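Follow-up to my post from last week.
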Amino acid sequence: MRIKKTLPNSAWGRLGDYLRETQLLASIHNTLYWDQNTIMPYAGSAWRGEQLSFMAKKLHSRQSSKEFEELINAAKQEFITNDLDEDNAKDLNLEKQKNIELLEQDFNRQKRLDPELVVQLASAQAKGYNLWQQAKAKNDFSCFAPALKKLISLRQEQAMQLNEDRSCWETLAQPFEPDLTISRMKELFAPLKKRLPEILEKVRGINKSFEAKWDLQEHSQQLLCDRLLNAWGIDTKNSAIARSPHPFSITLGPNDFRITTRVVSGHPLSCFLATAHEWGHSLYEQGLPSECHKWFAWPSAQATSMGVHESQSLFWENRVARSRSFSEYFWRHFVEAGAPLKSGLDLWKAMNPLSPGPNRVEADEVSYGLHILIRTELEIALLEDGLSVEELPYEWNKRYKDLLGVIPKNDAEGCLQDVHWSEGSFGYFPSYLLGHIISAQLTRSMEQKLGSIDERISLGDVSSLLTWLRENVHHFGRKLNGEQLVKEVTGEDLNAKLFLHYLESKVDELSSLT
Amino acid sequence: MRIKKTLPNSAWGRLGDYLRETQLLASIHNTLYWDQNTIMPYAGSAWRGEQLSFMAKKLHSRQSSKEFEELINAAKQEFITNDLDEDNAKDLNLEKQKNIELLEQDFNRQKRLDPELVVQLASAQAKGYNLWQQAKAKNDFSCFAPALKKLISLRQEQAMQLNEDRSCWETLAQPFEPDLTISRMKELFAPLKKRLPEILEKVRGINKSFEAKWDLQEHSQQLLCDRLLNAWGIDTKNSAIARSPHPFSITLGPNDFRITTRVVSGHPLSCFLATAHEWGHSLYEQGLPSECHKWFAWPSAQATSMGVHESQSLFWENRVARSRSFSEYFWRHFVEAGAPLKSGLDLWKAMNPLSPGPNRVEADEVSYGLHILIRTELEIALLEDGLSVEELPYEWNKRYKDLLGVIPKNDAEGCLQDVHWSEGSFGYFPSYLLGHIISAQLTRSMEQKLGSIDERISLGDVSSLLTWLRENVHHFGRKLNGEQLVKEVTGEDLNAKLFLHYLESKVDELSSLT
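User reply:
Got it. Predicted complex:
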């Protein structure tokens, strides 16, 4: 018995096979990352770092190889010759054309990177993550500072090698938010930078009393999350949940969706809301056009931007789980779990304390944007304006005092609180705020079609919301960037008006309760 | 900034680098396996199968490459020229010599395999495992049968390609038990095949009443396992525990040791004893000469055989956890966990019901060997003597009736009970019984040095047992095979006498209690 393997005849098929193998590697890399963050014992991190570097190197080598370039060119040639005049497959042609465009763009980026830089970056990320964990546990910024410096200098080198017609920070932000510029971002965020502190001033203090004074057992929190996910259509045949220090969502295969959450002592709603948030990410991934594995390895089937990704997680977290109608619908489950609530309103208040604190992940919707503005300004300063790593804790605390009126007790709850920089992710943070803005605009369009979503939520009907998102948002994949998607779906340009309007109404309603 | 990588000057160093990278791949493969068995959702299995096949192909290609062959030859040449006459490093020379020997042996095996067979096997293993899970859940052997046939024919092809001076089954058993032959195995097992049914006849029925009529909450079982592992020196910085359908132990890096266990409803001691067993495996891995990563990637630092591996897990499970002294020492923890026990003796009886059943993993020490003899005979018949897959359920049940006097209720608790064949592992089962034999011989030598281990166990002192095992057994790695190891440590040839003697004494003591 000898076993033969047949090669596909078409150049398109050969390119597909190549992409599939690249995606195998990428998803193996993701599996290592998942394991590292959910169960790997601490002492495994050095070896895991070597594994991740090894995979990053292999991945980069595939994504920048001569072979890949030739496969793209051959597929493009074949497409131009055979497909363009076949009228009966217009959609397929557009899909193919977009894929070629994206593949060429991604390839050109990868090709410019020195493979050794890729390896060094992967290794610096693993080390950085590691030291960040230690530094946070010990509240000792100085033990993380050298790793952060190293990551900054490697990322600066990366931007230089990429040699795009963009600033350093902009270049690094592209994979998260294609086509974003600093000036466009400033324009989008300007109304928020002005209005958010004013709204915050209005609510300052008065809703402090909303914060839950009670806590729930870990086991009960788990049960509530399970109930939520069941109500929101989880299929445990293709999804799994675990715990990690920093909640995240990740896709490990065409039918393998994972999310993590965490239990924070004294914050009985943290685990629940993190679950809602991460599941929102996962629902977007599950709605991408990768059905039947056909497009799974192709760029057009992938998430278009982190802003759009966050718009989905924030929709489920804030517009659904933090809504008054959801609390009315769901509060009895919290009572069963041991929460001392007398009504849905009690739960709604606890979900929305509107009290600015030093922590981004636990922040209310008003102050959230300010957490992002601070981080975005600081990372641009670190990468482009010579802000030194040593100055970071001071600058961080200063801005918190100025914008939010709170001073972190220490660096662990200050500039060490987030994982992103420890992995060298610069340019990611604005996506969270863009997500708020996009979510508000998409929700308005959804309501124009479905009527008030609150009515549906109060009846426990969220499947119609998901269907709308699948049909109007998810299926585009990378065919439209964030701004184009908003324009296509809502007919309006991306802007913060609806988000501010939503916040102001919510604050008015909450303020009237005190 | 350009980053340069320096290559080691010596051929030995270059070979080490190559092995290290191979080990990175192998440990990534193991991480995928761990994830697959502990948390991966079911629908992820098709893609995971592709990932595992991909890794298996890459791994095989590295292990059989021209580059590898040249590195081995260059290192060997360098060793012969430079090292052999340096008297002051005799141990290091022996280590190097053994490594070259093992590398040549392993390379020659890998080289003979058609890469396509390697891929097909990996894919058939993933599919087989998958279908086995379904078949077991539905109690439908016919849905697994085609996958089993495929695995048998691929393994037969593998043995043909390996073209060793051994029978098909022997060839496949080599990676588990180096140098084992069917005739030597029959010679070793003959006294067991004769005596075990006689001992079983003696205890038949009389100890049925020992079986626990009580159960423990999952949470309490978890707590007892944690207590056990703490008492047995677990360091959570380098070890992690999870659940899986079939308990196993796996090493994912030089400082990353994992075990799994499972909770079986109605069997309150199953989880506890599985934990003891798997932790015994892990302790062996932790004692291998891979300190400081130096030898981690080298064959001499690896486990020598599954028989020796099982001798370690069985020592901790049977000689320690199932001993009367351990029950006396530990029973109060079980009472705290909710077990209705009046004394250590009660626990000891529950740990040793001596009642033959259809399940290998839950079997007592007397019938255990018979479970193995049945599987070993059947897999040799499947691979070498033309036993058809369709006949397997009938042959299985027939042997259970003849040797153990029990008939499995259905195939799920019959020939579908074990995972091994679903992954195409033929030749593994005898290692369990060899493990029993080796454990008995090693324990005798340990007692000659330390005195009665029961005295130490009853005082909670197991660290001295572990130290003895580390100093006398673990550190050899692959430098000695199973038989050589026993000879070296005990001065005796491998034989079943001490194991039978141990069983008979234990049965006598237990019988006197009824």
